[in-house]
């Protein structure tokens, strides 16, 4: 049993040691503030975007990590008892591991910001940018998972009972691996599919897809599923395996430009050449057309109507949709006003006897 005087002495040592650690933490906070001020001063003109990203993502992790470093530096000079010293040393080590893992996680987001800043995905012809962003997103998610896994592993392995448990479990690792492999077969296949999609890239971020009877853009690619933003702002969520195993349409696989088609069904008396000239006038007057491709052809002759196909080019699928609607509306209005007899009609041929009977 410890005497009362020994207990009071230990409390004195604890209080003095905590005071020293507290002062070290305050000094660390001051150093962090000064460091960020100097970085901001240096990068204000040279790289303001980098500094803004660093400040946004690393402010809280460094506020946590730098004071702990100063506390670790002064720990050996604090007048702790051996038991107290061991406790605080272990606590600061664990917190430093967690803080360093937090910094690595936020650095991933800083890198993402810089890549997105350099490669603008909002421009019309963004094929190269979408390819890089798709790979970046998968690598980012995989890096986050690995950083969290390694950080938690280092924290757990710092405890002696956990380390002994891990050593004992190595003998059954083969059987456990087989069991986990069967149990997580679907998840692992999705992860491998995600890796394949990230580097072979049948789809990319912002690709325009047509699948399951829906039309939309790829909004997000995670480690296990893809989110498709449909034209009416609904979200279609599909597993990654879907894009490896099933067919789908990708309208922006090799570029954002696309050919748009409009079909018209008119009577055999329709003046095709005059409609073709009107199409040229419509295209010249609209900024939606990229002035590369345009034609109008009679693609079919049905029992009652002619099928006219208009084909024009547009810089993107969204503009192509607007251009199709614009051409359809203008051509139908032109035909209604100038050649109403060319609209589809149903003809009937009555025998002469029937006609004379009606006349009587």
What does this structure look like?
- This protein has 360 residues and is an alpha+beta fold.
- The chain has helices spanning 4-46, 48-75, 82-118, 127-157, 160-169, 173-183, 185-200, 242-245, 272-284, 317-338, 352-359; strands at 208-211, 214-221, 225-230, 235-239, 249-250, 258-266, 294-301, 306-314.
- A five-stranded antiparallel beta sheet has the order 4-3-2-1-5. It has a three-stranded antiparallel beta sheet with strand order 6-8-7, with helices on one face.
- The model is unreliable at 169-176 (pLDDT under 50).
Give the helix tally.
11
DSSP helix fraction: 55-70%
Helix-strand pattern, N to C?
HHHHHHHEEEEHEEHEEHH
Morphology: elongated
- β-strand number: 8
Specify the biggest β-sheet: 5 strands, antiparallel
SS strand fraction: 5-15%
Which residues form runs of ≥5 with pLDDT under 50? 169-176
Give the mean pLDDT.
79
- Based on CA atoms alone, the radius of gyration comes out at 35 Å
Task: Look at the helices and sheets and give the structural class.
Answer: alpha+beta
Report the span from N to C terminus. 133 Å
The order of strands across the largest sheet is 4-3-2-1-5
Task: For this entry, give a set of tags.
5-stranded antiparallel β-sheet; 3-stranded antiparallel β-sheet; alpha+beta; 14% strand; 360 residues; 8 strands; 11 helices
């Amino acid at each position: 049993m410890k005497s009362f005087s020994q207990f009071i002495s230990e409390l004195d040592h604890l209080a003095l040691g905590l005071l020293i650690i507290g002062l070290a933490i305050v000094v660390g906070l001051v150093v962090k503030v000064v460091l960020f001020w100097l970085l901001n001063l240096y990068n204000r003109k040279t790289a303001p975007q980098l500094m803004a990203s660093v400040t946004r993502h690393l402010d809280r992790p460094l506020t946590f990590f730098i004071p702990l470093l100063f506390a670790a530096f002064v720990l050996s000079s604090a007048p702790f008892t051996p038991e107290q010293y061991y406790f605080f040393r272990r606590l600061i080590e664990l917190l430093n591991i967690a803080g360093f893992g937090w910094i690595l996680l936020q650095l991933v987001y800083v890198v993402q910001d810089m890549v997105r800043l350099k490669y603008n995905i909002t421009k019309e012809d963004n094929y190269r940018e979408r390819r890089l962003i798709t790979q970046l997103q998968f690598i980012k998610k995989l890096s986050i998972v690995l950083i969290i896994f390694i950080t938690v592993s280092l924290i757990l392995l710092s405890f002696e009972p956990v380390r002994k448990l891990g050593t004992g479990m190595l003998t059954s690792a083969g059987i456990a691996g087989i069991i986990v492999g069967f149990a997580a077969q679907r998840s692992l296949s999705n992860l491998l599919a995600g890796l394949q999609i990230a580097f072979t890239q049948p789809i990319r971020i912002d690709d325009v897809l047509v699948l399951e009877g829906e039309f939309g853009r790829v909004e997000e690619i995670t480690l296990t599923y893809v989110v498709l933003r449909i034209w009416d702002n609904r979200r279609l969520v599909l597993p990654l395996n879907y894009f490896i195993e099933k067919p789908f349409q990708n309208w922006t696989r090799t570029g954002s430009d696309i050919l748009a088609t409009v079909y018209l069904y008119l009577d055999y008396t329709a003046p095709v050449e005059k409609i073709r000239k009107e199409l040229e006038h419509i295209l010249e007057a609209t900024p939606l057309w990229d002035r590369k491709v345009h034609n109008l052809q009679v693609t079919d002759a049905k029992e009652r109507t002619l099928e006219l196909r208009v084909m024009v080019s547009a810089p993107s699928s969204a503009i192509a949709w607007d251009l199709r609607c614009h051409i359809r509306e203008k051509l139908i209005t032109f035909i209604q006003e100038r050649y109403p007899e060319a609209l589809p009609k149903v003809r009937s041929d009555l025998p002469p006897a029937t006609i004379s009977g009606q006349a009587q």
